[in-house]
Amino acid sequence: LYERGYVHATAGNISVRLDDGFLITPTDACLGFLDPARLAKLDLQGQQVSGDKGSKTITLHRQIYAAACENDAHTRCVIHTHSTHCVALSLNATGPELLPPITPYYVMKVGRTPLVRYHRPGSPEAAEEVAALIRQYARQGSPIRAVMLTRLGPNVWHDSPGAAMATLEELEETARLMQLQPHTTPLHASELDELRQAFGARW
Questions:
Q1: How many CB atoms lie within 10 A of CB 159?
Q2: Residue 48 needs a FRET pair 20 to 30 A away by CA distance; which of 126, 139, 194, 199 works?
Q3: Which of 10, 54, 48, 12 has its CA nearest to residue 30?
Q4: 105 is annotated as an active-site residue
Q5: How far apart, in Å, are the Cα atoms of 110 and each of 20, 24, 50, 53, 165?
Q6: How far is CA 53 from CA 25, 38, 61, 109, 145, in A?
Q7: pLDDT in tens, 142-196
Q8: HEC profile for 27-41?
Q9: So what's the pLDDT on residue 94?
Q10: Are 158 and 75 in contact (CB under 8 A)?
Q11: Nearest to 148 by CA among 74, 201, 96
Q12: Which residues are paired to 116 by β-bridges?
């Protein structure tokens, strides 16, 4: 992620849900120079067990796991970045979601990405709002794998770090395309339905 330019300085964090707790990157750690031995190990209640002090976003990550696992029981990894193009789009966004369905792979690999209004980093209110959105979209029949924290960056989740990273990359590249071609016509309803039927797209 660091080498691809999706995280910079000490921005961004990654967590993995274990059977007996969580691993999460330490607070203020640079992901480009991360020592695996210093990863924070937390118990199921979010209390520190070992390693460096865990990122303050663990509250948000735990809320994501709790809500996402109601629909996707195998959710195991959450990634948060300050990806440039996603953040740039969020600065003037007015709709309920960051992006329209402009490419088939965004629809298939990411799905809808609701915007979360601005909260300070680490805010418990943001965690509650994200959990509510996850449950709301699941009830509507379009479970999500990503949200966009306005002015901060995306949170994505999946069943492994590799799958979560692929989701993050597809989201950021779609945001970049949208900035390059801001007047792109979204896919039509019939085209979205075809993606649902052929690939199980959750749109």
A1: 15
A2: 126
A3: 10
A4: yes
A5: 28, 23, 33, 31, 11
A6: 9, 9, 15, 33, 27
A7: 999 999 999 999 999 999 999 999 999 999 999 999 999 999 999 999 999 999 9
A8: CCCCHHHCCHHHCEE
A9: 87
A10: yes
A11: 96
A12: 149
Place of tokens 């979209």: 137
Percent of the chain residues topping a pLDDT of 70: 100
Token pair of 73 as six digits: 């029981």
Nearest to 84 by CA among 169, 15, 146, 190: 169
- What does the pLDDT read at residue 18? 96
pLDDT along the chain (203 residues), means of 10: 90 95 94 92 94 93 97 97 96 94 98 96 94 98 97 97 97 97 96 97 95
Pull the structure tokens for residue 19: 């059977």
Residue 193, token pair as written in the block: 């339905």
Q: Are strands 115-116 and 77-80 parallel, antiparallel or unpaired?
A: unpaired
- Set 65, 105, 106, 137: catalytic member: 105
Q: Is 174 left (phi over 0), alpha (psi -120 to 50) or beta?
A: alpha
